[in-house]
Write a structure and sequence with these properties.
By secondary structure, the chain is α+β, with helices and mostly antiparallel strands. The chain has two domains: 244 residues, Rossmann fold (3-Layer(aba) Sandwich), CATH 3.40.50; 132 residues, Nucleic acid-binding proteins (OB fold (Dihydrolipoamide Acetyltransferase, E2P)). Helix content is 26%, strand content 32%. The chain contains eleven helices and 22 strands. A six-stranded mixed β-sheet has the order 8-9-10-5-11-12, sandwiched between helices. A hairpin with a 2-residue loop joins strand 19 and strand 20. Helix 4 runs parallel beside helix 6. The chain is globular, with a radius of gyration of 26 Å. The two termini are 48 Å apart.
Amino acid sequence: MHPVERPPEAGLETARADRSALTPACLHIYGYMLLCILETRRQGPGSPLQPTGGQRWEKKSSGRGLEIGIMPHKNDVIVEFVDVQKSYDGAVLAVKDLNIDIRNAEFLTLLGPSGSGKTTTLLMLAGFEALTGGNILLKGESITKVPPHKRNFGMVFQNYALFPHMTVIENVVFPLKMRKINKAKAQEQARRALDMVQLAGFENRKPNQLSGGQQQRVALARALVFEPVVVLMDEPLGALDKKLREQMQLELKHIHERLENTVIYVTHDQSEALTMSDRIAVFNEGVIQQVATPDDLYEYPANSFVAQFIGENNMLHGTVEAISAGECSVMLDTGEKVLATSINVDGVGSRTTLSLRPERLVINPGPSNHPNRFKAKVTELIYLGDHNRYRVSLAGNDDFVIKLPNNEATAMVKEGDEIEVCWHSRYCKALDWVTEAGGLGKDGHKH
């Protein structure tokens, strides 16, 4: 990079004086912004660092980055991961043979436990982590050699990463300033962005004069103000309290619906993912276990890991005795038979784990067409206002959970009662076998 001679930026001395306020977590994003400053000044006006709304990256031309083209249609594939691998030590893969297509204008959540590879995947897309193998394409063109500041991605992090010496509006204007947007127009766009996140009137405050939720809204406005091709979010709500987090979930969902940009969001919070996403990719041990809409993911898990990780789930264990027309008969380890929907079993004689959602169970129904009926004993009752949660002992499982609405019929059930528990076969999913402790199954892998 050629040396750059320029007068000090307004506020630079203030930033130096206030550098003690810059936490290590902020330095990562500040370094990224500094690259934007230097590269923009080196290339000057008209460089490929200056996309505005209604545009997308298209094809390489002069070797100075990616040109801008028209916005792709909704549901077109905009980002592709092709056989992507990542290893930090050269021996263990943190991400294994990742293949996924991300559609334009969708809200895709990468969901999984700590260490599952979801954040590493986001960092590779952002350009902050190099790939060990494979390729990442943006609208059909590889971006693996494109530096982070040339990818035109908006970014929102859990630590906010706001400039402490700048006012709210100066923070939001910053990406536009780096793109040489006219000052008056930049101010107008920034005010619209702040209004969108309900921060009109806060323009002249400093970050330390804002609550955590307000700071996160500023970070969101800054990421969206230049209308990026893709917005990357790494657990942005993790530092907020429960009530504010739930409020921000809905706000993010509504903002995405209005703007129709592509959002790739990382979280380990299942309810957060179910609330906001168009699709969810569930990660475990560096591998995507399932990609589906929230309702399909919850109602039709592809394997036992997904069933256990998404929502609450009861497990029963047994052996497949017969399979017919999408259903299977399972002999439980305790000797009872269950009719279930066959989802992921190896055939007659194979071991299986049955998955049952607590809200799909019925108690004391009287005469009915439920094919599965079991005697159970209530060992615990928890009153939760609009519904009750029962822990019962059923078919050898002492932690079997039932959720029922709080009404006159269920109010009569007390701890110690003997009850009948029933369910339809369509709500009972026969999946790959895992041990009762969630350990190794017959394939030798931890699920």
